[in-house]
Amino acid sequence: MQEPEEKKIALELLETEQAYVNRLHLLDQIFYTELMKEAKNGKTVPEEVVKMIFSNISSIYQFHAKFFLPELQKRMEDWSCNPRIGDVIQKLAPFLKMYGEYVKNFDKAVELITVWSEKSLPFQELIADIQKRKVCANLTLQHHMLEPVQRIPRYELLLKDYVQKLPPESPDRDDAEKALEMIFMVAKHSNAAIAEMERLQNLWAVYQRLGLEDNIVDPSNELIKEGPIQKVSTRNNSTSEKYLFLFNNMLLYCVPKVIQVGAEFQVHLRIDVDGMKVQELNDTQFPHTFLVSGKQRTLELQAR
User: Higher model confidence: residue 199 or residue 145?
Assistant: First the structure.
C-alpha cells in the first residue's frame, strides 16, 4: 500500500519539526546559555547584549520542544485511527505570534554579533569554539539564527501542500483550511511588524538629522523623498546649496549645518503640502528651475 500524499506531508512536517527543535536547542541551551554564563562572569560582553542578541528564543524553544513537537508525535503515532493534524496546528497558531518579536529583532541581533566580535576577543573566541562542535555542522551562529525567521513561511508552504492533497471527504479538511488561514495571518502579522518597525526607525533617523524639532516629530509622517537643491536668488543672480525633505504632509526647506554637532540640517521653512503648487520655469540662465508655492511662501529652486 502506498502512503497517501497527505500523510507524507504530515510526516515531513514532523521530521522538519524534530530537526527544528534540535536547532532551537542549540541556540537556546548551548549558544545562549554558554554566552550568558561567560557574560555573568564579566568575561565577554554585558549580559544585556546577550539578551538582546537572542531575544525571546527561550520561549520559542520551550513552546516547540514541550508542546508542539510532542503533540505532532502523538498524532502521527495514532494516524491510522485518527488521520488529522489541522486541529493541532490550530492550537499552535496563536502562539506563533511570539515570533514577531524575534523576527523584528533579527537584523539588530546579527549587527550586535558583528560589533561585539570586533570589540571583545573572548566573545569572538567563545562563538568560534561552539561553531567548531559537531552539533553546529560547520555553520555559523548567524546561519542557525536565521532558522526561526524562516520557520513560519515553511509551515505555510507545508500546510498549503497538505490541504491541496487532502481528499474532499477528509475529516481534516475544515480544520486544516482554518489552520492554514491562521498561519497565513501570523506570517502577515510578523511581516507587517517588520515593515512598520523599519518605517519608524528610518523616520526617527531623519528627525535626528533635523535636530528633533518639536513641531516636526510625528510618528504618522511618511518620508517620500529627500535631496540637495539649489536656491536661486534673482537679486544677485546666484544660487546657494539647500536641502529638501518631502513628507506626505509637508515640505521642509533646510540649510546644511557647517558644524554638524547633533543635527545635520537646520529647518528654515516648512511649507504645507495642502494647497502647494509646483511650476516649471523656462530660465535660460538657470536651467532645471521650478517654483514651489505654498501658503507660507514661494521659492525658486534649481535641480541638478
Answer: 145
